[in-house]
Amino acid sequence: MLLSVFLLALRSVRRNLLRSFLTILGIVIGVAAVITMVTLGQGATQAIEAQITSLGTNLLLVLPGQRRAGGGGGGGGGVPQFTEADADAITAQIGGVVAVAPQGRASVNVVANGRNWATSVTGSSNAFFETGNWKLAAGRLFEPDEQRAGAAVCIIGETVRREIFGGSPASTAAGGGPAGLGAQLRVKQFSCEVIGILAAKGQGGMGDQDDTVVVPLHTLQRRVTGSTKVNTLSVSMADGADSAPLKASLTQLLRERRKLAEDEDDNFNIFDTQQLAETLSSTMGVLTSLLGAVAAVSLLVGGIGIMNIMLVSVTERTREIGLRLAVGALEREVLLQFLIEAVVLSALGGVVGIVIATGASWAGARLMAVPYVFDPSINALSLLFSAAIGVLFGYFPARRAARMDPIEALRHE
Amino acid sequence: MTVTTPLIQLRGVQKRYGSGEAELLALKGIDLDIAAGEFVAIMGPSGSGKSTAMNILGCLDTPSAGQYLFMGAHVESLSRDQRARLRRRYLGFVFQGFNLLARTSAQENVELPLLYRGDSASSRRAAAARALQSVGLGGWEQHTPAELSGGQQQRVAIARAIVTEPAVVLADEPTGNLDTQRSHEIMGLLLALNRDHGITVLMVTHEPDMAAYARRRVTFVDGLVARDEQNPHPVTGPPVVQAVDEDV
What we know:
The complex is a heterodimer.
Chain A: H1 2-15, H2 17-55, E1 59-64, E2 66-67, E3 73-74, H3 84-93, E4 97-112, E5 115-124, H4 127-131, E6 136-139, H5 144-149, E7 153-156, H6 158-165, E8 184-187, E9 190-198, E10 203-204, E11 207-208, E12 212-216, H7 217-225, E13 232-237, H8 243-257, E14 268-272, H9 273-316, H10 318-326, H11 331-368, H12 376-402, H13 406-411
Parallel strand pairs in A: 5-12, 7-9
Antiparallel strand pairs in A: 1-13, 1-14, 2-3, 4-5, 4-8, 4-13, 6-9, 7-12, 8-9, 10-11
Helix pairs in contact in A: 1-11, 2-9, 2-11, 2-12, 3-8, 9-11, 9-12, 11-12
Chain B: E1 6-17, E2 24-35, E3 39-43, H1 50-57, E4 65-70, E5 73-74, H2 80-90, E6 91-94, H3 106-115, H4 121-134, H5 150-162, E7 168-172, H6 180-197, E8 200-204, H7 208-211, E9 216-221, E10 224-230
Parallel strand pairs in B: 3-8, 3-9, 6-7, 7-8
Antiparallel strand pairs in B: 1-2, 1-4, 4-5, 9-10
Helix pairs in contact in B: 3-4, 3-5, 4-5, 5-6
């Protein structure tokens, strides 16, 4: 019985192909919109999370800057920078800290191999690689005496290596080592030996992280910037450490070292990448559900479209309904027939919508350069939801059909 | 007069429409017995109550007062669904306007009543083919109503009425939309159903030529049975030479 009613509904859909298509269009658009929005939203969230993770987990970034009312923290000229001593103090005095990397940064042109490349040079210690989740693809890290003396050595990112020295990536080079290792690279007025090459992190929304040259902090201070200032302190926390008390004691220590009075505001900011990641993904989550909700409204509109057409269909087929009742169809059988017809229509809309959404989110993900994440649950949910819309909006027309008086219905012109 | 237990018994059946000033008593108290195997023509002018009586006899409607016993069951006290079950089991309907589903093959039209009995697809197909064969439409299974003549459409409708092997076929002006020759062909079919398959046929008509096929004629006037007479010489089959009586 159920199967034959289902086949009957399919036949009725097929008999009015154009009308059926127009009827389900609302559902198609609704489902496609919801799934595409949610899928792209999830892809974007993942992309952001991946970028933040590549910065380093359990990481606190300490930047000089005044928090101003109504504006963000600026690295204003009057605000004092950090020194290497600050980094040493943090390492010595605060528990739960694994590594502190003081960093100075400058934009430079690097020259070697007859080629020229504009990049940024970072002066830091070996802690930099630990806090920043950097791995060496080839070569070695800085020696302690190189760091102390500010030796002319450097470790370069994959992008710099490729642009200057060419050849295959450091991580895949065979035997003799990748092109560039051991070569002399001229940074501003001095030449340094390339002692290591960093494993590529890949392109991210925060710029090409591989486009970098790392030298010991003293090398940068003496040979490039000529000052003892440090722009950033990267503080790596122990795994599972609670960031809140650590941040509090870090703030306390820095306030003391920077001789701030009780009533003065902090002249530095501490960014917690973990927290940043959580904040960003929860913001993305809210945005995604908001977009999904807007799209869901079109599903509702689609449902009303189905109800409209089902009512027209019931009126049009009054005589057919009368005949079915006369030959002995029970009320619930007629109800079921029209209900199943509505559900078949709306579920069909759901399926077509899913197909379109899969194509659209894949294309959209490529366009936005975010990963395409196929989420089975949102697809299943959309299908279920569209079928539910069929039940919801098909019930009223179906009940109207089932309650017809067979005599009146047969007489209907 | 055949001596059988009445299949259908109407006792003081009234049907009232509307209320107050607009009240209309369509049936004013009908007593009627119809035995299994009868071929009854129900006649009468418009507004005489014959269609109302047909609807009640077909269990599509219930009397406002009185009793209707169909095979011993009190139809007047049955629910809508119970009457539907009665119809699907024992009754077949033939309408003036054929009432076939458009854009649907003859076979599927004939299968329709079987759908609600839960028959399997193959047994439905076989039964529909048999019914179409018996109305002379073997080989026309896949034609839609639009591809059939009026007479053929009514044959499909008759096949649909008998596919469930009902006890009674109710035909409401079955020849009303057909020319004389087709009308006689349809009457021949109804006659054959009655004679060869023992199906009780109740037929509303206002054409004496068609009523002449019936062995009994019940005439309604003003909501009452005015005449109830036997036809000793019913027409036995087409082609018809001349109608028997001209008294209605």
